[in-house]
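I had to read the description of the data format several times before I understood it. For illustration, here is how one protein appears when written out as sequence plus structure tokens:
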Amino acid sequence: MNESAYIVEAPDSSTMESSARFAGMSRRTWLGALTIALLFAAWYVFTTLTGWISPARFPNPKEVSEALVQITTEGYGNGRMHQHVLHSLKLVLMGFTVAVGLGVPLGLLMGYSRKAETLINPAFLLLRPIPPLAWIPLAIVWLGLGDAAKILVIFVAAFVPSVINSYTGVRNIDTPVLEAAKMLGIRGSKLVFGVLIPGAFPMIFTGLRLSLQASWTTLVAAELIGALYGLGSILNQGAQDIYPAMILVAMVCVGICGALTTALLGYVEKKAMPWRRERAA
């Protein structure tokens, strides 16, 4: 008898782990799709079938689809949908990039150097409680009603979370790690890119997600004033025209754009920190 015919190889642990992660992702995907389907069904029932919610207060699916077709094909608020989306995306990326480019290094510096923290932190604590929207009047005075003023407001909103979380990330690095780096004579760029940034990566990306969310929220508020293009301008024009369906289209578009950019940032985070494995659901 051939005993090898009865020998079954044990499954590879990495394969089992990948299968478990895939099953967890599939389960989350189905649950998310089910939640959206239930919300859509409730929306249809309350607005179309029963009429419990007046169309003047909240549009039904047919009105929203007609508004989406209108802005996609004919245009609304000085432009079509892709023009508004691209314009808003450009403003968000510009403000977010500048804020992160300045905020992350500043947070790392304050977290590592007590002298830098003593020098910079008082001014930062003074500006931190000011809401980003409070900068809109000053931005208009400085830069007018153009895109530069909106980028400035987005920069202010995204700057604070990137600084705070980068600062916290450095402070959370174990003291023996920093002491070992000093003993080995690691200084300058080697210290920054070899010790500080890898050690603070989790908190840095937490700050980036918060900054990105703040950028989208502030963008909509900034575009409500003096904007010719953008998703915020659609909201403003829809409110003036008393057009709830178009308002809802713009709101959903903002949510989709925010979710897609957040997912892209999550992909970058996984590539930057391959040692962190996603928890199975």
Residues 166 and 204 are 5 Å apart (CA to CA). The chain has ten helices and no strands. The chain has two domains: 14-49, 61-272.
